[in-house]
Amino acid sequence: MTENARLHNLLRSSFDSVLTGNEIRTDTIRQYSNDTLRRVTGTELRRYLYREAKVINNSMNRAVNYITIRRGRLQGIRPNMGVVGHG
User: Fold this and answer.
1) Confidence grade of residue 41 (pLDDT, cut at 50, 70, 90)
2) Closest by CA position to 26, among listed 52, 49, 56
3) I need a labelling partner for 8 at 20 to 30 A (CA). Which of 17, 26, 44, 52 fits?
């Protein structure tokens, strides 16, 4: 295999793979009182489907910033879905 073919295959395996990281997680939502003390009056468990996605483009220096991820409609992503990051 030539060096160019090897590098081409390496690029394809690194960037063309579809991420399949779907994980259901449970989180606790606190419910607060409406008075000025804001006491915790209860909790509720909610389940969320977290989908992993690689950021392939972003803007960080504008009044309204955007990210582009390597997931889309076919993987269950819809407009205005929330984004959670770590790090």
Assistant:
1) very high
2) 49
3) 52
